[in-house]
Amino acid sequence: MAGELSGAAEPKMTMEWTMKLGQKPVRRWALRAGGAALLVWLSACSTTRLDAPAPVEDRRPGSSAAAAASAASGSAGLKGDSAQGVSETRVAPVDLGAQGSAGSSAADAQARAQRVVYFDFDSFSVKEEYRGVVEANARYLNADRKRRMLVEGHTDDRGGREYNLALGQKRAESVVRAMMLLGPKEVQLEAVSYGEERPAVAGNGEAAWAKNRRAELKDNP
Amino acid sequence: MVEQNNAGRRAALKSLAALSCLAGPWAWPLAQSQFRVEISGVAATQVPITILKLRDEDKSPQSVSAIVRADLERSGLFKLVDAGAVAFDESARPNPADWRGRGVDALTAGSVARLADGRFDVRYRLWDMVKGSELAAQAVAVPREDLRLAAHRIADEIYQKLTGERGVFSTRIAYVSKSAGRYTLWVADADGEAAQVAVAGPEPIISPAWSPDGRSLAYVSFEARKAMVYVQEIASGKRRVVAGFRGSNSAPAWSPDGSQLIVTLTRDGLSQLYAMDRQGENLRRLTTSSAIDTEAAWSADGKSIFFISDRGGGPQIYRMPAAGGAPERVTFAGDHNISPSLSPDGRWMAYVSRQAGAFRVALMDLGTGAVTYLTDTADDESPSFSPNSRLIIYATRSGGRDVLMTTTLDGSIKARLGAPQVDVREPVWGPYGR
Lengths: 221, 434
Prior knowledge:
- The complex is a heterodimer.
- By secondary structure, chain A is of the alpha+beta class.
- Chain A has nine helices and four strands, in the order H-H-H-H-H-H-E-H-E-H-E-H-E.
- In chain A, helix 6 packs across helix 7 (131-143) and helix 7 (131-143) packs across helix 8 (161-180).
- Chain A is globular.
- By secondary structure, chain B is mostly beta strands.
- Chain B is built from four helices and 31 strands.
- In chain B, the strands form seven sheets. In chain B, strands 1-2-30-29-28-27 form a six-stranded antiparallel sheet, with no helix packed on it. A five-stranded mixed sheet of chain B has the order 4-3-5-6-7, covered by helices on one side. Chain B has a four-stranded antiparallel sheet with strand order 10-9-8-31, with no helix packed on it.
């Protein structure tokens, strides 16, 4: 794959791509997401980047969304450049997650605005109802490899502080793993824990405890 | 350091102090209640002692005799007898028969004089009224800010002469308070008084740990938006990060010789134990489980490391050789045992055990494995042994507040410390010497 992408691609980025492909099997959608991200990067490389609150869903070259992104970035005249820079053998990856909600970017923005995943007692697994939160934030990170997020794990206040710090860490790691399955790189995510030290809700009883067993997703500038 | 002339009394005191409490716990405020110490329970026998006001102590910033009385009273082993209007200093020769007639077995008198250089000359004598002999006599010159310490040292000396055990009144404790969204790590006298700020800020502070030489504190601070371990020199305030790896860094534990720290790191994905030198260098991993391993605590001889692990389901306490080797499980009663603290004499382990939903301080005899539960409260945390292995300080919830308590090893004498209006937690007892 090296050398196929001409133009402003940084050699380092391309080599890393190639190395990853060579070393281990890479999920197709991850490839597509990465390739799409690369194309977005190329299209925006002259002056401005995409702004955070308006995630672009479908980044295949020639798609209306990609064209809209190029226009939004203010890089006049680049609309067709990404297409011209793509080789004839290259297959443009499609991110099924992105495509699925291409027609509902509002829903995606809302899911991205939701930054909390709640957990059952003594549990670390991400429940199905929070899939959307994980996916929306994963897409956000995929859109720009310079973006980073912190995932903070929390527990309710029952029990010892150090053990709760470790439990909160497990919750954060669980969310990070779920996100990394969708494409974000390890360097973009860090799992940390506040244990029981930063409750969202004060008080005793399951109503309060349930609101404190959580992982919060935060931008990490 | 057994003294022949008091061996009998000391032996009696030791065995009596080890007995369980009698008629149920009850509390009364100290006569000198400026220290806000509340004691419940009482030993079966107490030494009746009179501590006279030191001559001219009212002219100095601290009431030395009041501090001595409070220390001895908190131990539960002394009954303070008021002498009324009697007043004399260390140069007197009190009549033993007079004092035995008042029911007093021991007597202290002394003086405080201000020196030309601004220091204070503190003198006292301790008499055994049963034998009619002098047990101790001391004179020491101290700067003003060490007057409290001088009083605690007098209490230690009296305690040692009359019980045969080394006193801990002149040691220090560290603890964390939370008030109006602000977290403060304090260093205070063992009576909870004269607290000074070591570090304060808007982010949580947990898990303080004294270096064995008493000069530094390791602790976990969230000021960098995640848990990191800092080591701070108490006298200078100089501090540095010793563990700031990826993820959370916590639970610092000093080796008994002060050369190493064990910390809990999540840099490899799960909470595991790592050792490093006290500068934070030479990191090596100690545990390799796929569970949570944390809360390391060294045995007093430095040969074993105790820690908690949930590799068997719920968290339990394990022990492994410090030089490396397979951990073996230590706690078997209950499904949730955490926060081990080892006594300096190597005989005991205090920890927190969840029993019927309540978190209570438990004590294990390491020789026999027998376990006793020391409290009736439900939210205990952070037990820590005094350097003479005779007392345990811990935090609990009382009257809607987080408070600090000390207890004797049989649970019979408990004292509450600290300002009652502030939530205090995470106490840890410092070593001998300052």
